Amino acid sequence: MTSPAIPEARRETLYGIQYLRAFAALAVLAFHAAERSGYAFAIGAAGVDVFFVISGFIMWVIVERRPVSPGHFLRERIRRIVPIYWLATGVMVAGALAGLFPNLVLTASHIVASLFFVPMRSPSTGELWPVLVQGWTLNYEMFFYAVFASCLLLPGRVRLAVVAAIFVSLVALGFMVESDNALFATYTRPIILEFVAGMMIGRLWLSRHVPPRWLALALIVASFAGFAMIGILNLPFDEWTCGPLAATLVYGTAFLEKHGRGVPFAKVPALLGSASYSIYLWHTFAISVAAKAGGAVGLATPIIFVTSMCAGLAAGLCAYVICEQPLLRSRGKLLAQRRLLPSIRRNLTQDHGR
After folding, report:
1. What is the maximal distance between C-alpha atoms in the chain?
2. pLDDT > 70: what percent of the chain?
3. Cα separation of 174 and 189, whole Å?
4. N or C: which end of the chain has fewer CB within 10 A?
5. Which residues contact 192 (CB under 8 A, 6 or more apart)?
6. How many other CB atoms are there within 10 angstroms of residue 142's CB atom?
């Protein structure tokens, strides 16, 4: 339940999930800022695991609440993901051509593969990275969307089981077969199971299953404690470690929304959650500039780290305001116009009939 004083638009938003999106984006931001300033904050990369679980959760809840066709689902996801990503990739390519990124090797095939979310080894490093390195996660996102969309043709009662069976089979195949093929190596990683975990949480969330509030809070605390322990003790981690922690965090946070007033609205975390995609895509540009500038003038390492964090966050927020929001608004207006067209046509037909 939500407070009657909260506007209708806010009732539609799960602010706990929004805050987790902000947390995940800031974790990745801190990971890259630390990497460029000489610190070690490897656990920040686990923000990606949180993003993947959230993605599975949100997609399941959205489609169950408002069923759509596979084509409509994919069009909406492409409109949401592709324009900003192509713009950021274009900036990266332009910067490389201008000599701003001397270590970045460009090839036409790698650029095309990057733009169309096809995993390919980078000619710069040999890693399975697109031109914009953090775009590797979008290869997984788009793959998940494609599988999920195809399963929308199935009855709702078997949809989750089929997606889970596909992803578990791919992971099992990865354990049984060794291959250097980029597609095979990408889509057999256990990290894809995090989308399934998010879908399972979404299914529980839409059911009558409601754990006690104390349990939801305990799970959130336990998850943060697990991430903190890995970071403080510098323990090894991978998707088998961070996936369950991320799922526990999303589960606990999502079910807090079902108790009393839910998760209260807080302006800054909500803004950061809304801007998390832009922050994720654009922060590395500003971090690189800030870290190089800080090193050139002899700033202390802690100052370089803080400055890089602030620069990366500012770049993401600026991109959100300047690029992402206008695109979302224009898309919203287009959808509103499309919804109005049938009624306008009916009125014109009626008027003509008179």
Report:
1. 80
2. 89
3. 7
4. C
5. 140, 143, 144, 167, 170, 171
6. 19
d(C-alpha 235, C-alpha 227), whole Å: 10
Which of 197, 193, 180, 182 shows the shortest CA–CA distance to 238? 193
State yes or no: pLDDT of 140 exceeds 80: yes
298-307 contact pairs (CB < 8 A, 24+): 301/37, 301/38, 301/39, 304/36, 304/37, 304/38, 305/33, 305/34, 305/37, 305/38, 305/39
For residue 209, pLDDT beyond 90: no
Note the pLDDT of residue 13. 76
- Which has the minimum average pLDDT: 8-17, 99-108, 223-232? 8-17
Q: What is the DSSP string of 77-127?
A: HHHHHHHHHHHHHHHHHHHHHTTS-TT----HHHHHHHHTT-----TTTSS
Which pLDDT score, from 0 to 100, does residue 333 have? 58
Residues 104 and 124 sit within 8 Å (Cβ to Cβ): yes
* pLDDT value, residue 327: 82
pLDDT for 214-254, tens place per residue? 999 999 999 999 999 999 999 999 999 999 999 999 999 99
227, 28 Cβ separation under 8 angstroms:
no
> Which residues are within 8 A (CB) of 113 and not within 5 positions of it... i.e. 6 or more apart?
119, 120, 130
Q: How far apart are CA 85 and CA 280, in angstroms?
A: 10
Rounded distance between C-alpha atoms, residue 30 and residue 185, angstroms: 27
Residue 100 has pLDDT above 50, yes or no: yes
